[in-house]
Amino acid sequence: MQRASADSVVVLDFETTGLSPQYGDRAIEIGAVLLENGVIVDRFQRLMNPGFRISPFIESYTGITNEMLKVEPPCEEVMAGFSDFIAGHNIVAHNASFDRRFLDFELKRARRAYEGDCCCSLLLSRRIYQDAPNHKLQTLVNHAGIPKVGSFHRALADAEMTAHLWLSMIDRIRQHYGVQAIFFDQLTELSKIDKLYAHRYLTDLANG
DNA sequence: TGCCAGGCCCTCTTTAGGGCCTT
User: Fold this and answer.
1) Whose C1' is closest to the CA of A24: which nucleotide?
2) Pairing mode, if any, of strands A91-93 and A39-47?
3) How many C-beta atoms lie closer than 10 Å to residue A164's C-beta?
4) Distance in Å, residue A4 CA to nucleotide B2 C1'
5) What predicted TM-score, i.e. pTM, was given to this entire model?
6) Is A135 a catalytic residue?
7) Domain Exonuclease, which positions (predicted)?
8) Domains, chain A, ranges and CATH?
9) Mean pLDDT by groups of 10 residues along chain A of 208 residues
10) Nearest protein residue to B7's C1' (by CA)?
11) Nucleotide nearest to A54 (CA to C1')
């Protein structure tokens, strides 16, 4: 099997009604970009109707209103289409455990499943940008000098900025450590090791 | 309408507690 390059992935972001699908929360927007060799070559963005009114807090937080959602298709219909978009790709998300819970929950309701691997840009940023004031997406975008795209807390904009953050971390590894080719599973492993050993891990990668 | 979770990670730790991150 051919090893997956780190810069050919789908970067995704959910907007949801809350924090936990186990307590009744649902997805209301999915945004994703397909990176191929470090370039965004495709985009996916859909609003979806969760079947109940969303709270004023979520309306204010995301800018997505009940008025906007009432004409949108149900989650199951949107997620069936998204399942086709991510098929065959590894995925990246900022605080991926959150997005993965909603991805698995909504795909299960749509009678679909995702079998690929998942890497967390938040965990990775704690190893790569140890000098950042914090590791919120908005802070890291400013810290890394990434151009702002659209509005924070909208799915496609957050996915696109997360994709540029992902690429900036790959560039930083290449420039600082001289790593020529870096693979998805290596970044996944880096995101999970004790961050004190991140420097040693990257030095070992550079030395083969 | 308002509430909720969970994994990572640090430290005044490991027989625990609490902040960070996501909506």
Assistant:
1) B4
2) unpaired
3) 20
4) 44
5) 0.94
6) no
7) 8-175
8) 10-206 (3.30.420.10)
9) 83 97 95 96 98 95 96 96 96 96 96 94 95 95 94 96 96 92 93 88 88
10) A97
11) B1
